Structures are given as C-alpha cells and as structure tokens.
TrEMBL record:
<protein>
    <submittedName>
        <fullName>Bifunctional diguanylate cyclase/phosphodiesterase</fullName>
    </submittedName>
</protein>
<feature type="domain" description="EAL">
    <location>
        <begin position="24"/>
        <end position="278"/>
    </location>
</feature>
Length: 280
C-alpha cells in the first residue's frame, strides 16, 4: 500500500520502520543490562472478593525504569521474550515478589495469595517446577501461597503435552493455576478441560465494554457460568467503576482487581497500606 502511494512514501515508511527497529534494539540492550544488574522491579496489585471487598492476594507485575521513565510491560515483556531475557527477568520478578510477601508475612500481615505471570519460555523450561518450588521455600512460603498466571495462547504451544504435564506437577505440589486475559487469545474451550486450571481471569477489555453493550454483558455472564460449572473461580481484571463492580457482582463474579480498588503498588506502599488497613 505504501508503494501505491509513490516512491517517496515508501522511503519514509521504510525509514520509520528502521527507526523503530533501532529503537527496539537499543531497548533490548538496555533491558539486558537492567536484568543482569538486577534492577527490574516489582509492583503488587491487590485482589479482592467482589462481594465483600476483602483482600485475597496480590498480582506481581514487572516494572522497569529506563532513562528516568517507566517503560510499559506491554512493550518490554515482548522484547524480553524475543531476546531470550524473559527467564531471567521472570525469576527476578518472582524472587522480589516472594521476598516482599514473605517479609510481610513475617511481620504478621495476612497477604493472601501471590499471583505471578509466567511466560511461555519459562513454563517450557525443564527445570521450571523445581526452580519455582525452591524459590517459594527459600522465602518461607508454601506452594499454596502462589498462583501461576498463564495466558491462553501458551496452551496452544506445540509443547502443549509437556506444559500440561508441568501444570499437573505444579498443581499436585499445591500451586494454583489461573488463565490470564481470558477471551482475548485463540485457545478453544476444549483447552479448559485439557489443562488443570483453577481460575479464569476475565480480560479487562470485556470489563471496560460491559456497561456499553448487552452483548458484552452476555459474554461476561457466560464466562462466569462456564467457569463455575467447571469448578473454577473467576477474577475480573481492570475494574475501574462502581457500575462495573455492581454488574460483576450481579453476575456472580468471585474476585476482582482494578483501579477502583487499587493501582499496582510499590513494595513500601503495600506495607503502609496493610498497616493503615486501607487496603481496600
Ligand atoms: P496482566 O497480567 O493481564 O496484568 C494486568 C494489567 O492490567 C497490568 O498492566 C495492570 O497494571 C493493569 N491494570 C490493572 N488494573 C487496571 C485498571 O483498572 N485499568 C487499567 N486500564 N489497567 C489496569 P501492566 O503492569 O502494564 O502489565 C501488562 C502485562 O504485561 C500484564 O498483563 C502481563 O501480561 C505482562 N507482565 C507484567 N509483568 C510480567 C512478568 O513479570 N512476567 C510476564 N511474563 N509478564 C508480565
Ligand atoms: Mg496477569
Ligand atoms: Mg490479564
Ligand atoms: Mg492483560
């Protein structure tokens, strides 16, 4: 299409593409340095019961500041995956999150479950289950304290059988497993039966569109009904308004997460909020 608009356009287009590729290359180099220095940080976003607004746990989210500014995980996680950095980045996030939660527990706070996002390359790694168990015990926690979040596209991986096997091992050890961003990927419903899944996380795209349309409400209600019928619980992501919360409660959704309750928090903020009792 750029070609049809004339040679000049084509040249501008390819220059923009090259600039983009160079920018990504520079980010990849900087990210590799940050990972090896151990400066990837973790934010913790509280999760609550929809009905009672009781704290049930935290999701660990990677944070990276580059040249003084935060880079979005939506940008740097794919770069980490493409450049072979995701395993190291992921274990750093895991370690810092376990350290934070373990520390809070030792101070007497009840923190609930820690949810961690695990990328395809991590779960496929042969030593993953053993590494995870060792990390959890090292921080004085047990597998029951930790939930693994996987996006549904991981289930489509050509290594599906091995992944199912790893998940069964993890679950037998006491970890729980959540399917993240449900409804946005390409997995079919049959995957829900093939993999051991405890919780479904409804993507925030559905939550944000819910109040605008009957169809979205029907889909959300159907996801909740399906999950419950399969013996799974449901977490809604990205709850921003009281209207969304009321809808989700009416639909029987179990848990929620979003700016209405709390933004992702830095580690010291978590302690301060738990201390003041202002979570939620
Ligand atoms: P996710 O796992 O679905 O995480 C939820 C995202 O929604 C987070 O974005 C969170 O900050 C954001 N969020 C939470 N509540 C609200 C809300 O009310 N409104 C809006 N608009 N957004 C909300 P974040 O931190 O930018 O992370 C984006 C994605 O990057 C995550 O989506 C996850 O897929 C990935 N990611 C983050 N940290 C890690 C990590 O340590 N490892 C891996 N593999 N992926 C990660
Ligand atoms: Mg997640
Ligand atoms: Mg999600
Ligand atoms: Mg997401």
């Amino acid at each position: 299409r750029a070609k049809a608009e004339g040679r000049g356009t084509y040249r501008v287009f390819s220059r923009a593409m090259r600039a983009h590729a160079e920018q990504r290359g520079r980010l990849a180099t900087a990210l590799a340095a940050a990972v090896s220095r151990g400066t990837i940080d973790v934010a913790l976003q509280p999760q609550f019961t929809i009905g009672g607004r009781a704290l049930t746990g935290f999701e660990a989210l990677a944070r990276w500041r580059h040249e003084g500014r935060p880079v979005s995980p939506a940008d740097f996680i794919p770069i980490a995956e493409e450049n072979g950095l995701i395993a190291d980045l992921g274990s750093q996030v895991l370690d810092k999150a376990l350290d934070a939660i373990g520390g809070l527990r030792r101070k007497g706070f009840s923190t609930g479950t820690l949810a961690v996002n695990i990328a395809s390359a991590q779960i496929r790694h042969a030593g993953f289950a053993a590494m995870l168990q060792a990390a959890v015990h090292r921080h004085g926690l047990t597998p029951a304290d930790v939930e693994i979040e996987l996006t549904e596209n991981i289930l489509l991986d050509e290594a599906g059988d091995e992944i199912a096997c790893t998940l069964k091992t993890l679950r037998a050890a006491g970890f729980s497993i959540a399917l993240d961003d449900f409804g946005t990927g390409y997995a079919s419903l049959s995957h829900l039966g093939r993999f051991p899944i405890d919780r479904i996380k409804i993507d925030r795209g559905f939550v944000s569109r819910m109040c605008g349309g009957q169809d979205t409400c029907t889909i959300v209600r159907a996801i909740i009904g399906l999950a419950h019928a399969l013996g799974m619980t449901v977490v809604a992501e990205g709850i921003e308004t009281p209207e969304q919360l009321a809808q989700l409660q009416a639909f029987g959704c179990d848990f929620g997460q979003g700016y209405l309750f709390s933004q992702p928090l830095a580690q010291d903020e978590v302690a301060a909020r738990l201390r003041s009792g202002s979570v939620p």
